[in-house]
Amino acid sequence: MRFPVLKLEKRSVCGRSHGCCRMRSPAHRTRDIERQAGYLKPEHCAPPPLRNSSDTMWFIRDGCGIVCGVITWLLIFYAEFVVGFVMLLPAKNILYSLFNGALFSSLAFLALASHAKAMCTDPGAVPKGNATKEFIESLQLKPGQVVYKCPKCCSIKPDRAHHCSVCKRCIKKMDHHCPWVNNCVGESNQKYFVLFTMYISLISLHALILVAFHFVLCFEDDWTKCSNFSPPATVILLILLCFEALLFLIFTAVMFGTQVHSICSDETGIEQLKKEERRWAKKSRWMNLKVVFGHPFSVAWLSPFSKPDHGKADMYQYIV
Ligand SMILES: [Zn+2]
Ligand SMILES: [Zn+2]
Known about the structure:
- It comes from Pleuronectes platessa (European plaice).
- The protein is α/β, with parallel strands linked by helices.
- The protein has one domain (about 5-45, about 55-310).
- The chain has helices at about 25-30, 65-90, 95-120, 135-140, 190-220, 230-265, 270-275, 285-295; strands at about 5-10, 15, 35, 145-150, 155, 160-165, 170, 175-180, 185.
- The strands form three sheets. The protein has a four-stranded mixed sheet, with no helix packed on it. It has a three-stranded mixed sheet with strand order 2-6-7, with no helix packed on it.
- A hairpin with a 4-residue loop joins β8 and β9.
- The protein is elongated.
- The two termini are about 20 Å apart.
- One zinc ion binds near residues 164, 166 and 177.
- The site of one zinc ion has 5 residues, from loops.
């Protein structure tokens, strides 16, 4: 009689970024230690937590990630301060100030909300310690079928899940761990991360345009009239905002493009980096976008407050 095969996962130990992932060829996979299900020793795994993980808020206690997250919020508040108090309040045209103030503040609010949702949403963590004999039996594997076990968090991981050493969990469709949102980017929070990069690039572009207009205004007008601050303070505040906006525009626009490309091609950052062979069904680009942003297409795609409905596309295969 043949037993289902349990493989100890050694191919996807991932740390803070793409760069730390070890490259493994398909040949490595076949060299993983194979064990029969009968040899599985559940006592080596911590028992699964009794409480439902959805009861508690998801938050990664990582010092570096928390500092990066706080810096992100402070930089957005700095931009809001300079745009509002240095540029728009002293402007003579009230309509110009109202329109740009409302637009910038709305985009900044959506960026902050997307950041908070990306940070506090479970990215798709596989239940910890579920590599028990009962769970393996419940999968009703056929003889010879293979499941992967993560030795770090003692979980039976679905296909396309990877272990994150910062989150200390296996994450479904893990793309990368982002310290700026202090969380992994995975199957369940990718929408919020993409929205975060999009809104940050939009407010950065808006801030750059406003700074350019304000410099022109100040050069044409008297420097003492174009700002409530002294001319040197105004120049320093505007130049700092200019640098910040330029840096974030480049960084987040590139990240946004990379994310949309990886969603359309249905290949996560880790899979692209490791050049993993494709074991999952190919779908159209439009369908791949719907898997991340929800069915059907609507204005809710742009809202960080709308939870995407993954539908049937959420089904995962444990069997490789
Ligand atoms: Zn793991
Ligand atoms: Zn992580």
